[in-house]
Amino acid sequence: MSTAKYPDLSLADEVFDFHALLSPEEKEWAMKARDFAQTQIRPVIEDDFDKKYFRKELIPLIAQQGFLGMHIKGYGCAGASAVSYGLVCLEMEAVDSGWRTFVSVQGSLAMSAISKYGTEEQKNYWLPQMAKGEKLGCFGLTEPHGGSDPANMKTTAVLEGDTWVLNGAKRWIGLATVADLCIVWAMTDEGVRGFIVPTDTPGFVATAIDGKLAMRASIQCDIELTDVRLPADAILPGAQGLSGPFGCLNEARYGIIWGAMGAARACLDAAISRSKEREVFGKAIGSFQITQAKLADMTLEYEKGVLLALHIGRQKDAGTLNLAQISVGKLNSVREALKIAREARTILGGDGITGEFPVMRHMANLEAVRTYEGTDEIHQLVIGRALTGLNAFS
Predict the structure, then answer these.
(1) How many Å separate Cα 49 from the centre of its chain?
(2) How far apart are the first and last CA of the chain?
(3) Distance (Å, rounded) from C-alpha 257 to C-alpha 308?
(4) Residue 85's pLDDT is what?
(5) Active-site residue numbers?
(6) What is the sign of the dihedral through the CA atoms of 344, 345, 349 and 352?
(7) 109, 122, 119, 75: which is closest to 237 by C-alpha?
(8) Rounded CA separation 285/277 (Å)
(9) In the 8-state DSSP scheme, what is residue 158?
(10) Which are the contacts of 256, defined by CB distance < 8 A and separation ≥ 6?
(11) Is CB count within 10 Å lower at the N or C end of the chain?
(12) Rounded to whole angstroms, how far apart are CA atoms 249 and 148?
């Protein structure tokens, strides 16, 4: 592969000079993530995407970088800032959304659920192993009948003596076929509760979803729960009601705000490089006004998206974040990243639909990212509710 097509240093960021806004520690996390993603994932990702292969052997190496649960303090986790975590998400998704999704599912969803709502015994047992990549987690919330209405949850957990019995189904659950534990959310007599379910528990069956045209280098699954019996202490005591899973979803949505801009940057870089190489009518297409206008507009939206992500990250680190801002960021980042990918594809011409360039792969992945962790419509309603004080969900 030509380094001109996949520059080690972002061409867009050379103009942006974004790193001037970061602290030395934040820069260090960003550069560590960029180096890892570019050297370990980029050379193999097109082939993995084509073959629908999740390169599980990279997980110990990712863990060695400190990326798993890196925003959690203690328990073998790095305790890094929200901005640092966001920068890692950006760099991972710059090579493929599937790998940012892995970091999010393990750290922002499964590990965050235990960190936020678990007992000290649960935290001490699971989190150090998960930070090392020795144990993998997944997060069972979405159900087959509709992911946008978790209040209508059909999975149940019934307490029989000192044993919980879980029955139901989940869909689009990342990592479930390779995970060692699943955080399962189920309806109880007290409302929605979370449970740590070892995946080798009888009655727990995960099946990888095939036929995907996006996120092909990662794993998403159906889960069936049939009389899954758990001890009483499998429950996460700190989570009661939908605020439990939503607290974890907001962590994952935050990572998407940054990650989608990584995908956008990769597409923009590919378009910039190609505009200087491809010639029509006797000169490089980058010398034509209309091509430069396209590049300028894409760069504008990329910079705005990253600055919004940084603003939200600074608020998160300061403890002043209005959660509606997460919806603002997720809605904007994914929507604009898709627009950038589509515009970049026009500059690449017919070659843009091939695996020679990352743009179609990113475009397909972003269509999936646009749906999960809240569709555009859900985030529009969250923002609208914040603006008007009126609930339009029902």
Answers:
(1) 17
(2) 51
(3) 9
(4) 98
(5) 373
(6) positive
(7) 119
(8) 8
(9) E
(10) 89, 100, 104, 330, 333, 334, 369, 373
(11) C
(12) 12
Q: How many residues does the chain have?
A: 394
Cα–Cα dist 280/287, whole Å: 10
71 versus 8: the higher-pLDDT residue is 71
Average pLDDT (371-381) is: 93
C-alpha distances (whole Å) from 304 to each of 315, 367, 394 are 17, 20, 33
Average pLDDT over residues 286-291: 94
Q: Which residues contact 347 (CB under 8 A, 6 or more apart)?
A: 271, 274, 275, 285, 291, 294, 295
DSSP state of 288: S
Predicted local confidence at residue 9, as pLDDT: 58
Percent of the chain with pLDDT over 90: 90
Backbone angles phi, psi at 260, to 5 degrees: -60, -35
**Domains present along the chain, CATH in parentheses:** 11-131 (1.10.540.10), 137-234 (2.40.110.10), 243-388 (1.20.140.10)
Q: What is the pTM of this model?
A: 0.94
Q: Which among 294, 301, 291, 220 has a CA at the least distance from the CA of 263?
A: 301
Spatial CA neighbour of 262 closest among 68, 27, 81, 95: 95
Q: 223: which residues sit within 8 A by CB, 6+ positions away?
A: 140, 169, 170, 171, 173, 176, 182, 184, 204, 205, 206, 207
pLDDT in tens, 333-343: 999 999 999 99
Structure tokens at 76: 């073998």
Helix (H) or strand (E) holding 165: strand 163-174
Sheet strands (E) in 202-293: 204-208, 220-231, 279-280, 283-284
Residue for token digits 């974040």? 321
d(CA 130, CA 110): 9
Both structure tokens of 133: 């990549």
Token pair of 264, please? Answer: 């956008």
DSSP letter for 210, please.
P
Give per-residue pLDDT as tens, 201-223: 999 999 999 999 999 999 999 99
Please give the mean pLDDT across all residues of the chain: 94
